[in-house]
Amino acid sequence: MSERVIVLGGGVIGLATAFELRQRGMEVAVLEIKSFGGQASGAAAGMLAPYSEIGEDPDDFFRLCLKSLRLYPEWQAQVKEASEYEFEYTESGSLHCVYHEADLLSLSSRQGWQKEFGVEATILNQTAVKKMEPEISDEVIGAIHYPEESHVYAPDYVKALELACANSGVELYDHLEQVDLEEWESTVRLRSKDGRVFEADQLVISSGAWAKEYEDVFSLSFPIYPIRGQICAYQLVPERINHILYSSQGYLVAKADGTLVNGASEDIAGFETTVTEKGIHRLTNWNHHMLPFLKSLTPFHQWAGLRPATQDGSPLIGRLQQAKRVIFSAGHYRNGILLSAVTAKAVADIAVNQKPLISLDRFTPERFS
């Protein structure tokens, strides 16, 4: 009889992990208190851009992101095949743009250390940038081009993961409202608000910012906090943008459906997911300095989601030493889409008692205790 695993949390990390566990032959159930992909996952812009986002620190977190990026071509193909559902995966490349001469030096530094990891990166002057993206502002004086960076359409990717799980035989339970962990030592047993009992041999906690609720249960510190990310989108027609456009102020990414996603404004608002005028203004206040035509346009869509941020910016991934049946996989902040591939495989490795495909020493869930 195969091992049974419950995955608590139906965001992108939980669904990806459930799918991979099922591929390893395990019986899997996903428990979600709300809707699948409804928080950080559904609100994400879907960027797979570790080189642009991580500019100064080639540490274990960068290595984790890099590994996941390079897993993505095969991973997304597997998800599409299992789900029988197409989603956008675009190997667009990116331009990390700068506005001041002093910033060109930082691009050279970034290019230098990233080269050691086999990253293809080319520093472009203003003329070369304009040739690649004619609509870009004359204020941009240069950029670093990363042809490997990509993006997915996050809502469809999460939907595909849900379908891949369902088609593979994963049991999916959503809108449970509340799930209590009653036993985790001799077995795993959880009870939902409606009285249903779920039992398994192992538990994976992938409940994002809600994972902090387990501090008292395990007498450990899990400093994960919700950060509200606000995003807006424009209709792009007739303009055409070919690359992810990144700057110190945020990003712009064109989707295949003809929209341009602009993110992200962040603030601390507890578990509040309403969109604020101030939050969206932070985006519209700078984006025309990247693409001047945006100054005359109004976003047609605005939304927000909660991003689970840890105290040190890195996720909690690993088996609890004092609760051997419990694996943590939470706190991926704004990199959940990117890290879903590597996290799913690493957690599945842990669940079947194999050495993870990449070192997880920095990400141990007990490190704050």
TrEMBL record:
Keywords on record: Oxidoreductase, Thiamine biosynthesis
GO molecular function, one term: glycine oxidase activity
One Pfam match: DAO
Residue intervals of the FAD dependent oxidoreductase domain: 4-349
Database matches in Gene3D superfamilies: D-Amino Acid Oxidase, subunit A, domain 2 (3.30.9.10), FAD/NAD(P)-binding domain (3.50.50.60)
Reactions mediated catalytically: glycine + O2 + H2O = glyoxylate + H2O2 + NH4(+)
Source superkingdom: Bacteria
EC numbers, comma separated: 1.4.3.19
Keyword Protein biosynthesis appears in the UniProt entry: no
Protein name as annotated: glycine oxidase
Highest classification ranks of the organism: Bacteria, Bacillati, Bacillota, Bacilli, Bacillales
